[in-house]
Write a structure and sequence with these properties.
By secondary structure, this protein is α/β, with parallel strands linked by helices. The protein contains 11 helices and 17 strands. Helix 1 crosses helix 9 (339-350) and helix 4 (180-190) packs parallel to helix 11 (362-379).
Length: 380
């Protein structure tokens, strides 16, 4: 087997460019980078980049820092609706399209002078429009191709809705990062009495499309796996999709077990809550929800209702996209911080070293599981 030699010279001067709405996450990432690299007091790897708007809503990007020779990492949250701008005197929330356009403006402002450009887009822009059904646009594929054509070397995303979208850019870098270790760590920290074994816990996928990530959890934790499939009415189209008629369960008996529902995102949460209610009716003990992205597009009231009625116990999502203050205050909600992981990725890539070990958390999961089992045994 070939020996991997780790490099100790940066590929270029490290520069972290935070798009609007990512300032808090960038600040946390910058903290770890400056600590690890023993940077001088007051030093920051974040370089200022702004996208001012004209009164008509048109925009431009301005970088107040040299771009020549830098190894640029652009942090972008296309789903931060708290960011606004003025257009014809009205305050307008930024849509995913607006954020993506600003990302391209920042890349253009670099003017081809950066040594390398990496885009860190935790939730992939148009990731749910990843395949064509009849006469539809392939928005995600087009967006990825556009970024590569503008000079982006690598795109890092988290828990892509369908990772096969990387086929759209076969000659471009594309890393799909999972949050499984951080999720398990957060579960143990927030629910210290949880018993993660076949007798007491089970992994459940809310649909057939999410089986891949659920199989990983099931395999690495040694747990049984169940799945729901969506029965749809294919004779009707509502909002461009065939409506769901019912959720049907495939799997072993769940009675008396803690269940972990795993998915890439909560949009409205309607399907997830419906599934939680069905599992509770089957005798499930506690229900925990793992989703990388919590959009909650229809608000939080339904989740409050289900929590108060004992149908869900905890919902875990990450800070990779915007989390409104009212969500962070909910008793049922647990926020999973990913800033240290992002800092590890950036620090490793800046030295042009392999991130393979960072992308496979199996060893870290095994270590934290052994520690948790030992702590439970000591408490008996």
């Amino acid at each position: 087997m070939a020996t991997i030699t780790f490099k100790h010279t940066p590929f270029g001067d490290l520069a972290l460019i935070s798009m609007r709405g990512c300032e808090e996450l960038a600040k946390k990432v910058d903290y770890y980078l400056t600590q690890w690299r023993e940077a001088p007091t007051g030093h920051s790897y974040v370089i200022p980049g702004i996208c001012p708007r004209f009164g008509t809503g048109e925009g431009k990007a301005v970088l107040n820092h040299t771009a020549r020779g830098i190894d640029a990492y652009i942090l972008c949250d296309c789903f931060n609706y708290s960011v606004t701008y003025k257009m014809y005197g009205q305050t307008v929330p930024m849509s995913p399209d607006d954020h993506f356009q600003d990302l391209k403006r920042i890349i253009a402002a670099l003017g081809g002078k950066a040594r390398r450009i990496t885009v860190i887009m935790p939730m992939l822009y148009e990731g749910r429009q990843h395949r064509r059904s009849t006469r539809e646009s392939l928005d995600c594929a087009m967006a990825l191709q556009e970024l590569i054509s503008m000079g982006v070397s690598n795109i890092i995303t988290f828990d892509a809705h369908d990772p096969r979208i990387c086929n759209a850019i076969p000659l471009g870098g594309f890393d799909n990062v999972q949050c499984s270790y951080q999720m398990i760590k957060a579960l143990i920290r927030n629910v210290p009495d949880v018993q993660i074994d076949c007798e007491h816990m089970m992994i459940v996928s809310p649909d057939e499309g999410g089986m891949g990530r659920c199989i990983y959890y099931s395999s690495v934790l040694g747990l049984e796996l169940g799945m729901f499939y969506k029965r749809r009415d294919y004779s009707t189209v509502v909002d461009g999709r065939n409506p769901i008629v019912a959720h049907e369960f495939l799997g072993d008996n769940v009675e008396g077990k803690d269940l972990v529902l795993v998915d890439d995102m909560i949009s409205s949460g309607e399907s997830m809550l419906d599934i939680a209610a069905k599992l509770k009716a089957k005798g499930a003990k506690r229900i925990f929800v793992f989703t990388t992205f919590g959009l909650f597009v229809d608000g939080l009231e339904k989740f409050d209702e289900y929590y108060n009625n004992g149908l869900i116990d905890r919902v875990f999502t990450t800070n990779l996209i915007y989390n409104p203050p009212e969500l962070l205050q909910r008793e049922w909600y647990c926020n999973v911080d990913m800033s240290k992981y992002i800092a590890y990725l950036i620090d490793t890539l800046n030295y042009d070293n392999s991130i393979s070990r960072l992308l496979d958390p199996a060893d870290r999961i095994n270590n934290i599981m052994e520690k948790h089992v030992k702590e439970l045994q000591e408490q008996k």
